What does this fold into?
Amino acid sequence: MPVDRRLEAVPASADFELFFRDERGRLFGSMLLITGSSHEADELVQEAFFKVWERWDRVGSMENPTGYLYRTALNAQRSAYRRAVRAAKRTLSPPPSPDPFAAVADRDEVLRALGAMTPRQRAAVVLTELHGYDTDEAASAMGIRPGTVRVLVSKGRAALRARMEPNDA
Amino acid sequence: MPDVKDLLERALETATAASPAPRDDFDRFVRYRDRRHRNQRLAAGAVALVLAVAVLGSALAVLRTSDARRPGSSGSVVQIDPGINQACGPNDACWDADVFTMRVDGSAVTRLGYGDDRDFGYSWSPDGQRVAFYLGTGVEDGERFDSTADIYTMATDGTDVRRLTDDPGLDLFPVYSPDGSKIAFTSDRAGTVDVWVMDVNGSNQVRLTAFEDDRLDDYHPTWSPDGAQLAFVRGKVPPGADGKLWVIDADGSNGHVLLDAPLVSFPVWSPDGTRIAFDTGDWPEVRVQMLGLSSGAVTDIVAGHLPRWSPDSTRLLVSLTEGSGGFGIVDLDAPNRLQVLRSTGWAAAWSPEGQRVLFNDAGLTAGSPDDATAEPVLQAPPAGEVIAGFTESGIPFLVVRHDDGTLTAVEAVSPHLATGDVHKLLGWCASSRTFDDRFHGARFDERGRYVSGPSPSGLVPITVEIVSEDPLTFRLSERLSAIPRDDTGERPTGPLCMDVPLLSPGIAPGGLTPAELAASSPSAPTIGARWSVEGTLVVSPDGEARLCTSYVDGVCEAGAPVTGPVPDGPDELVIEGTWYVIVRTGVLDDPIRAR
It folds into this structure.
């Protein structure tokens, strides 16, 4: 499978703003597919770019800063801290505005099918199938073993197939 | 089946089309980045301060109460600062939540502190002397508190702050045991979210919900009145929460499910031990419900969240999920009727003696002591009668004294078509004892509750602070949120007013007395003086509304600007009559004809 060109190296001299503008939309979309929430995806994207900005001197000269960006976003997404914070946030926040993604996800068969996967399966499938990561790269981004990635992708594909094939028949 | 990559590309396209990035994407990120960067620096200072507090102990109290210039010093009166949250987006965290107390009638709002950090009061000690709260510090902006939170207690005047926990995790939701010797709380310090218990001085911190299979989170503890058990929520934390109500013995044994219903949050055991109130449902459609412990029956109480029992177990403080929040009291004998106390913040605890409320709020700043006296002291009318006027900030009001001697003050504005800067003033019909919208017919009972006619809600109450009992004098205080329309009032028993004049701040029969008029020269009115004038109110969308004392052939020859332009208003709205005006900005253009 060809590797997504967006995940290839960005020149070390690349300006952070350019990097942001190039990557923001696709990272947001990926987080949207993984989390199923535009509010959460937006938070993760802002936070990931903030962390990258803090280390831009180093990250900007990396061979693959985009990989670092995705790894940072996925780290934030799975942190125990965030889960605990969200537990309390429900009562401490103003009411969230309606999520436009939710209504679309209800209607779109692919998005509904993605909803049948676990968040970790979605992350593994998005990284490998959508972005062209190999197993080791996906494992590194997700903080898990390569073997686990293979299992997650396999189960995720099976879940996707189970939801999509009846409609194709 | 199509290629997986093609499917995902399609899904990505659909998803991003449904939730497109804002146009000012990078600018928005820069604002986020700058706040995060600034907060990191502030957090470093806050950590240093907290460490200093741990060493200096009660020296903090001296520092806090002696710093007269610092907004929010202990004991100051507070007022809404409408600007503080205006720069924040709906998902931003640029706020400074603080702990407050007030009397149950809404008066005596007092800020307990804690500076610029995010601190959340949560429970009151059984002896009423201290409150427990948690303080978020750290670097994780974008959330309402940060990457670490620790538990503190302080005296109810904001002094004698004591830190009880100090670890990198989140320590939240501290609740005193009924005998005041222990505090239960929620923490993720062990890698999972659990209920912990510690002595009231912070020692002997023990993980209570150390279940063998600990894939689920345990949070929001509440003690049984005898201290023998704790109820808590067990499940995955939101989003996608499926928390159920559990109970466990205080020694950590015998944990089991008490209510197998999903989406339970914030259970709280009634002081009489017979019920557990909780909230349930997806935000913002959250409702407060109650589990009867002997019957097992669940009773629906009211829309809202974070229930908190009154000491006599007859009422609940309930926080609102809509708008800017706020909270009120629901009497269990009359469920679904919430008496709103505040239109912002959320309630944390009822004081043990039942007279005060611990609450949290953002967007409050301290005012000078003079602010408390900005509104004049007014004399209450006789029972069954009403007075009308404008507050110093220009809000028209009506105050009625009920037959039982209590007072209700409302904003004298009809909620119907209440858009723009010019609203319909209400009048008081003495025979039906209703506040009437003369223009379109909506009626409200003498407590401001909706009765009939076109209106989206009841009236907007204004808090009354009693200054003296005999004679009964009072001062108007804070404007609250409108009474919900489903909190309907009593139907009028007397004749309705049709064409007779109504008492209203806009059309004040009798106006001011001649003696009051003679006290000032009409040509040089004193700022803050009130005048009854005959004039024509002319409202147009492209300029200030003006009260013209001489309006001839469409020309306003003299008058005073009384309000701003009316967006999407009529081309020109002309209302002739006698107006009760307050001079706010200086000398009027032309002497007004007072009568």
Remarks:
- The CA atoms of residues 309 and 316 of chain B lie 5 Å apart.
- Chain B is about 10% helix and 35% strand.
- Residues 374-479 of chain B form a domain with the Rieske Iron-sulfur Protein fold (CATH 2.102.10.10).
